[in-house]
Amino acid sequence: MKPLVAAAVTIIALGTMTTAAQAKTLFKDTSITALYGGGFKMVPNNETASLTTMTLEHASTHDWGGIFAFVDRHQGDEYDLKDASGNVTGSKNYRETFGKVSPKFKVAKFNDGLIKQVNLASVYEFSSNSTGFGQDNLWVGVGADLNLPVPGIKYASATLYHAFNNAERADGKKTKGDDQKITLTSAWERDNLLIDGYVDFAFNNEFDNVKNSIHFNPQIKYNIQPALGIDNRLEVGVEYDYWKNKFGVNDVDQNAVAALVKYHF
What we know:
Keywords: Signal. Residues 1-23 form the signal peptide. It comes from Psychrobacter urativorans. InterPro entries: Channel_Tsx-like_sf (IPR036777). This is DUF5020 domain-containing protein. The protein is mostly beta strands. The longest helix has 15 residues, at 3-17. Residues 1-15 and 17-21 have low confidence and may be disordered. The chain has helices at 3-17, 225-228; strands spanning 25-40, 49-62, 65-82, 88-109, 115-129, 134-146, 153-164, 167-168, 179-190, 193-203, 213-223, 234-244, 254-264. The protein has a single domain (3-81, 88-264), classed as Nucleoside-specific channel-forming protein, Tsx-like (Outer membrane phospholipase (ompla), Chain C). The protein has a 12-stranded antiparallel barrel with strand order 1-2-3-4-5-6-7-9-10-11-12-13.
């Protein structure tokens, strides 16, 4: 096991065990989202494709740090199955499961200034799809929760990771090497209008054919709970997904838009 991987596993284990009986939950939220949209790249048989997605998501903050996790289930159209000679042998519906588990552990907290809290951070990222592609990636790094002087900001953070990438095609060939990532997240809310999302910048991949990439994924949502008079938060809106050099593939630039409905438990 590589040293940084061993360190990450140790950090996660220690963070999980830290004063479990005395740990205080400051915030928690669990939700399910339904999305449908088009413009997605690298889906079989299509230059761009439409996808239906169901997302289960959890976020919580604690006195020791916090955790964010989600699982996406994508469903797409049929695509052709081909043999080694390129002959069509049948068809299959596209399916993909993708998820992340992202714990962070508080190192230091500050009362004033731009930096609110410094964290040790990690991400376990996994996926598989019906074409045989799969990945199990581990990111470890250091980040900061930020105090941005903008009215309506709910949270903001910046994190630098080293990513140990294990992404493979159906034939077992590895498609990406290790790289570094900068992740920015933020959320803004006012009068039931919420805008949140993230930017990932991946760079310095050890494979020369894997290009730097930028993944920008905001959601714009409106909370209709007050209008409906229901107990739980219910949001409707849109998600925009811009991904330059998707998966590090040169000139594969994704511009996808999806309508969404999000229900909070």
